Amino acid sequence: MRQNILGLFIGVLISGVAPAHPESAPVAPSHTTPAALVQEALANNPELKFYAAEIAAVKGSLKTAGTIRNPELHTEAGYKNTRDNSGGPSGEGATWSVAVNQTFEFPGRIALRKAIAKGNIALAELHLQQFRLTLAARVRTLAYSISIAQERSVAAREVADRFRSLSDVLAQRPTAGVTPLLETRIIDANTLNFRRQEREAELAAKTAAAELNQLCGRLATAALQVNASELNLLQISLQTLVDTARANAFDIRIRQAELAQQGFKVALAKNERFPAVAVGPYYSQENATDKEQRAGIGISLPLPLWDRNAGNIETSRAREEQARASLFATQREVERRITQSAATFEAKRKQIVEWQADMVAKFREAAEVADRHYRLGAVALPVYVETQKQYLEVVGALQEMKKDALQAAQELEILTGLKLYREEERH
After folding, report:
1. Domain boundaries in the chain?
2. How would you class 311 by CB atoms within 10 Å of its CB: exposed for 0-12, middle for 13-18, buried for 19 or more?
3. What is the pTM of this model?
């Protein structure tokens, strides 16, 4: 009984001395998909929030453009002393006056300013939509780049471990002659080379992850593991892409909106040749000799004799011609980008189709077979090394083709709004 009580006391003492919060284990990387990362970036990207706030700021200009000028109050107060022609005093007293003027713009001017303000809002919204689509494309590209780098790193590690294991086996065997020694050195050199490829793939994944984390509003150092799905590449004719881009390309729509803006600005400059009119009542009173009161309506306006706003009209017309030329140049540029991206996409799509679905699996199996038979002495070292290298080259080449095809597809999506790929879950 005494021993049980002593043991219980010691246990309580140890538990009291033990730290209440043990050291936390390293945080495991979060597993996510490209689609989930795109949604996260569209919700949390700091720059996207800046553009959204900019639209709210531009909308304030619409209220300003439609606001009528405030009336102006004019007051005067003084002292009046009157004398007759002989110089004798006649009378004296206070004098004061008050007037209120309301300025009225020339007809159509406020409507033109509101149209320009609405055009600015439309431009801001187009820029926001373009940024959202570009952001989604960049996030998706980085996500697939991480997945590709991770797969290449796994393949390089697999081959490097295979060479390292083989080097350990050969090191235990007695060397008889120069040939076994040279073969060991060749295997060691290839081990270092494959380790280098593994490290480069890991570095590429970490570099892409840092940028991707920041686009999603995360810490750049957050660990990230991407489970990318297979891409099913679609085929669309070049003419369809060009026709759709002419109607949907953000660059063209932005230039069209800018051209319309310049048209309104030309009309506004012409309207501003005519002056605004200020109209309002006035009242004045003098208490010198007699009490004199005056009341009426006053009108004031500048006389457009010297300034007919010719300089602003000429400038606005020149800007309109620039906008028209910019629209034409942008249309040509979009067609060129469509043609180049479509050619790249179709070439990569055909290359991927030509490769069998189990191509990587076949080369991986060949690499494993070569490893087993080389250990048995049935395969020569050059064949063994070449098989391992070809396996890695096939993995890298296929992943690069997919990456290039995805980039071209997303470029086409930005220009046309058409999605040339479908993401399918891996089996």
Report:
1. 29-68+106-273+310-424, 70-104+275-307
2. exposed
3. 0.77
The predicted-structure confidence for 104-121, as pLDDT tens digits, reads as follows 888 888 888 888 888 888
Residue 64 contacts by C-beta under 8 Å, 6 or more apart in sequence?
A: 117
Does residue 243 contact residue 335 with C-beta atoms inside 8 Å? no
Nearest to 349 by CA among 417, 416, 411, 398: 398
What is the rounded CA–CA span in Å between residue 171 and residue 174? 8
Q: How far apart are alpha carbons 202 and 185 in whole angstroms?
A: 26
Q: Give the Cα separation of 366 and 276 in Å (integer).
A: 87
Distance between CA 119 and CA 135 in Å, rounded? 24
CA distance 393 to 388: 9
Protein fold of 29-68+106-273+310-424 = Outer membrane efflux proteins (OEP) (1.20.1600)
Residue with tokens 């004199």: 292
Is residue 423 within 8 A of residue 231, CB to CB? The reply is: yes
What would the two tokens of residue 233 be? 């590449």
Amino acid at 44: N
Q: What is the rounded distance in angstroms from the CA atom of residue 103 to the CA atom of residue 113?
A: 16
427 vs 418: CA distance, rounded Å: 27
The answer to whether 96 touches 284, Cβ cutoff 8 Å, is yes
Read out DSSP for 36-57? HHHHHHHHH-HHHHHHHHHHHH
- Cα separation, 111 vs 117, in Å, equals 10
What type of residue is 284?
A: S
In Å, how far are 10, 302, 425 from 267, measured between CA atoms?
93, 20, 56
Question: What confidence tens digit (pLDDT) does each residue in 283-323 have?
Answer: 888 876 677 888 889 888 888 888 888 888 999 999 999 99
Report how far residue 384's alpha carbon sits from residue 374's, in angstroms, rounded to the nearest whole number: 7
